[in-house]
Design goal:
This protein is 20% helix and 39% strand. With 147 residues, it is an alpha+beta fold.
Length: 147
């Protein structure tokens, strides 16, 4: 019994460590990206809302897929100082599938910025990395807003 508990603990620890490594690799990859990918097969929108004097909510919306996409994982980062983890899907949780003619028709990633500064797409840069498959072929796209 003791060996089983030790094995399960190691398995749990290794899985979490692997997810955190993937998360950091995605963040690091986005550091060097300057341009959005051309011909992205879906729409990406990013908007900001002030929730209080100190808190701004940002939201990335992916919708209007032009064909079925599967095994979707994504992360959105920004260039403002934060102690929070950036929003993700498919890294710490299950990857998702988005089908052209079925619900859900997209995904949202939502995060928060602690700032009294007025935040808009002219004074903050967002970068998005999305990995997915179409007919079991892997793709990766980047979306970058510019200051």
């Amino acid at each position: 019994m003791k060996k089983i508990i030790i094995f399960l603990t190691i398995l749990l620890f290794t899985g979490c460590n692997s997810n955190y490594k993937t998360y950091n690799n995605y963040k690091k990859e986005l550091e060097n990206i300057k341009e959005s990918t051309k011909n992205i097969p879906f729409n990406i929108k990013i908007k900001n809302d002030r929730l209080s004097d100190n808190i701004i909510r940002y939201q990335m919306e992916l919708d209007n897929v032009k064909q079925d996409i599967t095994s979707v994982s994504a992360i959105i980062v920004h260039d403002k100082k934060t102690n929070d983890i950036f929003p993700t899907i498919g890294i710490f949780d299950e990857k998702i599938n988005i089908y052209k003619n079925k619900k859900p028709k997209g995904l949202y990633l939502v995060g928060y910025i602690d700032s009294k500064e007025e935040i808009n797409n002219k004074n903050i840069e967002y970068k998005v990395l999305i990995k997915y498959k179409i007919n079991n072929k892997s793709y990766k796209v980047y979306y970058v807003t510019k200051k």
